[in-house]
Amino acid sequence: MKSIEIGLQIVLMFFVLVSLHEFGHMFFAKRAGILVREFAIGFGPKLFSYKRGETRYTLRLLPIGGYARMAGEDPEILQVATGQTVGVRLRDGKIAELYTDRFERLPGLLIGEIEDFDLEERLFVVLKVDGESHRFTVLPKAEVVSEGKETQIAPKDRQFGSKTVSQRFLAILAGPVMNVILAFVLFLIYAFAAGVPTHIRLGTIEAGSPAAKADLKQGDVIHSVNGENIGANADRLVELIQKSAGEPVRLILSRGGEQIQKEVTPVKLGDSIRIGTALGYETRRAQPGEAISGAWKDMTFMTGQILIGFKKLVTGDFKMDDLAGPVGTVKFTAEIASAGITPMVRWSALLSLYLAIFNLLPIPALDGSRLVFILLEALRGKPIDPNRESLVHFIGFAMLMLLMIAVTYNDILNLFQS
After folding, report:
1. Is position 70 within any domain?
2. Count of domains in the chain?
3. What is the pLDDT along the chain (418 residues), one digit of tens a residue?
4. Which long-range contacts (C-beta less than 8 Å, at least 24 apart) are formed by 324-329?
5. CA dihedral for 381, 383, 388, 391, sign (positive or negative)
6. Which of 153, 179, 206 lies at the terminal end of a domain, its last residue?
7. Which of the listed residues 268, 284, 300 is the one where a domain comes to its end?
């Protein structure tokens, strides 16, 4: 039962992180009047799909991201050509549906040969029916049906490229921004849940360690070290211990409501000077101002750590084991989820922040690269060739997938070795 609960927490976490990111793209795209063809969570084969309004919502097999597919981001391809025989369904004398195949047995269709058409700007089709030409207006939300698949036409003013630089920039930027907002909200929830540290509380005591020999107990609360009040400053406690290798350290503790004094002599354990105990905190409820301040400090600190990690990727100062793909991330997330909901909230905040920063990197296929192309257009005064931009993003996506495969393979090897 515990494993099922952890699994559901992991699925819910990834669903929320990706859904909110893609919702940001979709919301601001629709506000700008862009046709959003599909809102997808995951990649690969469809597991679930339904259409609401103009947008198809899909859940796909591979849980490694998602996308909001906007009309015009890639060249529009409709299987319609001059000289083609098609069937059309009229509504108030205007074309509402255009069938490119399998239309012979469908009732109520007008069948003819296309002599001329424009489905982006002037929205018309000229059909030759029984030797006579007829010009029909096409409805702005008409659908082309090919091989049973419906595709809504995208007039020029509904396409991504027709919108202003600021509208497109905002539609792309909104995804990472939503993840930043989510990260701050989760850090804030964590700040309220974890409380404000007031004193350091000892955790697990290692058997045979200096802490065990000094009769320190799990749950003891430290008040002072060598006469210095320590409060919740764990860094200062560690610093004092590391400066006292082989020398007794005097601790004032409280245990069961009583204050006691103990002496412990730090020794070298592994690569550092330690006394052999884990550290935790005694906390109190956070006030709103303290929670907001703590959440902001937590988020800015984690942002710095994430940027340091990306810098190592650029300089090559990393090992393959330093990277984690979906398998490694899920494994680590499961370990955190098993520790309780509070650490899971903080970990979710960190992943949301990571997702935002990663997507803002100027790597082809990521949001950051798309923003770069929009800024280049603003500087040049004219757009980049859509075909060239699509090629750059395709190559970038392929490279990311290759990296993902390599990292996942390494994750699986480490999983079996452990």
Report:
1. no
2. 3
3. 567 888 888 888 888 999 999 999 999 999 999 999 999 998 888 899 999 999 999 999 877 788 999 998 776 677 899 999 999 999 999 999 999 988 888 898 999 999 999 999 999 999 999 999 999 999 999 999 998 888 999 999 999 989 999 999 999 999 999 999 999 999 999 999 988 888 899 988 888 888 899 999 999 999 999 989 988 888 888 888 888 888 888 999 999 889 999 999 888 876 788 888 888 888 889 999 999 999 999 999 999 988 887 787 666 665 655 555 566 677 777 788 887 888 899 999 999 998 999 899 888 878 998 898 899 888 888 877 777 777 777 777 777 667 666 655 555 555 555 5
4. 324/407, 324/411, 325/404, 325/407, 325/408, 325/410, 325/411, 326/63, 326/64, 326/404, 326/408, 326/411, 327/408, 327/411, 327/412, 327/415, 328/407, 328/410, 328/411, 328/414, 328/415
5. positive
6. 153
7. 284
Mark whether 305 and 245 lie in a shared domain. Answer: no
Give this prediction's pTM: 0.79
Q: Domain containing 128: what range?
A: 85-153
Residues 14-45 as b/e (b if ≥16 CB within 10 A, e otherwise) read: beebbebbbbbbbbbbbebebbbbbbbbbeee
Which helix (H) or strand (E) segment holds residue 90: the answer is: strand 85-91
Place of tokens 């499961």: 334
The widest CA-to-CA distance across the chain, in whole angstroms, is: 106
Kindly state the DSSP code that residue 158 receives in the 8-state scheme: G
Tell me which residues are annotated as active site: 22
